[in-house]
Amino acid sequence: MAPIFSPSSSSLNPSSLLPPDFIPHTASGLPSAACYSGRLIWRRSKYKNQNSAIGHYSSEGHEPIYLGGELLGSGRREALVEMTVTAFYFPAMASGAAPLQKGQSKGAISALKRAVMGSPCQPQQVHVSVVGRDHMRVTWITVDKQVPSTVEYGKEPGRYEDKATGEHTSYKFMSYTSGKIHHVKIGPLEPDTTYYYTCGGHAAEFSMKTPPATFPVEFAVVGDMGQTDWTKSTLQGLESKDYDLLLLPGDLSYANSTQPLWDSFGRLVEPLASRRPWMTTEGNHEKESYLVGEAESFKAYNARWLMPHKQSASTSNLYYSFDVAGAHVMMLSSSTEFRSGSDQYAWLVTDLARIDRTMTPWVFVSLHTPWYNTNDGRQGDGEGMRAAMEELLYKARVDVVFAGHIHAYERFVRLC
């Protein structure tokens, strides 16, 4: 069976990846890689049978996603349309057959009729984070570089009494260029309150709920999220919970150096990350490879997931702290220098000294690589950081440390 395309071959002409009956909605041809999302519309195929399925391949290193036989016939579905991402029809797949390999299909391809792209001004990859006790930051991306970095917001749907203007950035990594990344701080906001908001003047309305000012408060903690079937079930579990704030201790998108994976991850988590604050730190899979002309690490993470490091006197977006509802939370970096004499170590000493237990009786730490675990293949991964910083946490009587990296759930009794 001949491969249809290889997602790892970045030099392919995107038009060569499409079935003959694929008609892009623009007169100029297939939307560019900067156009992030769209709606796939397909027609009934003469090849349909009960074992057929519709599916699409994501970016390099990820399994194909099968959208299911229930979508056969004519229909539409929100889906990715990127230079290295397209959708295929898989007719007559044998029941229980092994998953198709990247770049392969079974039988004829005759699924897609046209793709309708979203507006270049449309906000996407929307997520929110806390900035101080009564402010939130709204982050989103647009294809159109002229979209203003403004957020209108209010307590009722469709009624926006306040407006804030923020900043924007973008970045390049090798041949990839990001969209316009907007960061807008809004507030002051009331605690435990739902706000409705729009981004960049676009009509799409989002809603968020601010954390409570006092106990009780409910944290969700999820590490190593990625973009797999496990991610889907994790997000479904989160959606069923009424949590106030999410901590994500590293390995968000598993992009490494594959930049489109940041875009697909942002779209994947937007339905939840736009409604509750997501507070993150980096993991090893946020670190780009050192390539010719690319010496900066964590370029994508720092541009896309701006955290309140300046508000906690940190010089790096990779480690910071914040207060929420009687808890002081410190997000540490396992991937940057942490030994005595480093900037992170000095910042941690200062931040711990500033804790006021009358205001924040609980103290939490979140980092990527655990200092203790029972995985035989991962012993010692966090030993250097443990040796450097554990005594500081003991002396400060830190209550809980949350970590990721090991893809299994473990917990330990109090160590001090």
TrEMBL record:
Keywords: Glycoprotein, Hydrolase, Signal, Zinc
Signal peptide span: none
Domain of life: Eukaryota
GO function terms (MF aspect): acid phosphatase activity; metal ion binding
A Pfam short name: Metallophos
The Purple acid phosphatase N-terminal domain, residue ranges: 123-207
Top-rank EC class of the record's enzyme: hydrolase
Reaction equation(s) it catalyzes: a phosphate monoester + H2O = an alcohol + phosphate
EC number(s) on file: 3.1.3.2
Keyword DNA-binding in annotation: no
Entry annotated with the keyword Glycoprotein: yes
Cofactor(s) listed in the protein's UniProt record: Fe cation
Positions of the Calcineurin-like phosphoesterase domain: 219-409
InterPro entries: Calcineurin-like_PHP, FN3_dom, Metallo-depent_PP-like, MPP_PAP, PAPs-like, PAPs_N, Purple_acid_Pase-like_N
Annotated family: Belongs to the metallophosphoesterase superfamily. Purple acid phosphatase family.
Official protein name in the record: Purple acid phosphatase
Origin species: Linum tenue
